[in-house]
Amino acid sequence: DSGVTQTPKHLITATGQRVTLRCSPRSGDLSVYWYQQSLDQGLQFLIQYYNGEERAKGNILERFSAQQFPDLHSELNLSSLELGDSALYFCASSARGTGGDEQFFGPGTRLTVL
Amino acid sequence: KNQVEQSPQSLIILEGKNCTLQCNYTVSPFSNLRWYKQDTGRGPVSLTIMTFSENTKSNGRYTATLDADTKQSSLHITASQLSDSASYICVVSRWSGGQNFVFGPGTRLSVLP
After folding, report:
1. Which of A44, A103, A104, A112 to mutate to test the interface with B (most CBs of B within 10 A)?
2. What is the model's pLDDT at position B74?
3. B10-35: pLDDT as tens digits
4. Does the structure show a pLDDT above 90 at B66?
5. Could you give the CA distance from residue A6 to residue A20 in angstroms, rounded to a whole number?
6. I want to staple B104 with a disulfide (CB 3.0 to 4.6 A). Which of A42, B6, B41, B67 is the partner?
7. In angstroms, how far is CA A45 from the centroid of its own chain?
8. A59: distance to nearest CA of chain B, Å?
């Protein structure tokens, strides 16, 4: 158990809908990262937050957005869902959000878009 | 183009044997290189993190090497165990106005009794 929690574990929805994925980092960690893992594209970095502020952006689509709240939990919002958005979404956390920080991954949320 | 390649794509070995997984990258500017172990359907677990100046790092039976000149890394697993069966993913971090992470496709390792 990494100490990172993600809810829900599974999510099934229809195309065009909007969903919110939630992540709670390890106690004491200030930085949160979001990743997408699909069968055809592997793992991709989406976005990083540090202490409530966006720190780095990866391959995140404009239909996706995220935020980190004052209690340090984070939410990833996915809208206008398409079939290709079906994937495992992982959240990770690290202490300081710097380059050499070890990241601890949560168990993931499996999103299925029908 | 920033890319990470891994070989072999899959590997089958017998319990107790050693193996070496390869990672080649063309990512720049280079920040660090990480190896992760990922069991099917679970989150990746960090094995090693190496910066430009480090060329070897160990974590138990796992030893990673880095040659920043040739942009190659390897992960050596000693005395394999059944629990080593997993995907091993090489990730290169680059710094460009903020961190970005480029993932390799992974090597699927199966350890048989």
Report:
1. A103
2. 98
3. 999 999 999 999 999 999 888 899 99
4. yes
5. 11
6. B6
7. 9
8. 9
Q: What is the pLDDT of residues A4-55, one digit of tens each?
A: 999 999 999 999 999 999 999 999 999 999 999 998 888 999 999 999 999 9
Cα of B43 vs its chain's centroid, Å: 15
- Count Cβ atoms within 10 A of the Cβ of residue A89 and give its class: 0-12 exposed, 13-18 middle, 19 or more buried: buried
Beta bridge mates, B91: B34, B103
Q: How far is CA A92 from the centre of its chain?
A: 8
| Residue A105 half-sphere exposure toward CB, CA atoms < 13 A | 23
Q: Closest CB to A99: pick one of B32, B43, B44.
A: B32
Q: By the 8 A CB rule, do A46 and A34 touch?
A: yes
Structure tokens at B47: 């094995």
Distance of CA A42 to the CA centre of its chain: 15
The answer for B 80-99 residues in CB contact with A (under 8 A) is 89, 91, 93, 95, 98-99
Classify strands A31-38 and A87-94 as parallel, antiparallel or unpaired.
Answer: antiparallel
Q: Closest by alpha carbon to B35, among B16, B17, B54?
A: B54
* Phi, psi for A72 (deg, rounded to 5): 80, -5
Largest CA distance in chain A: 39
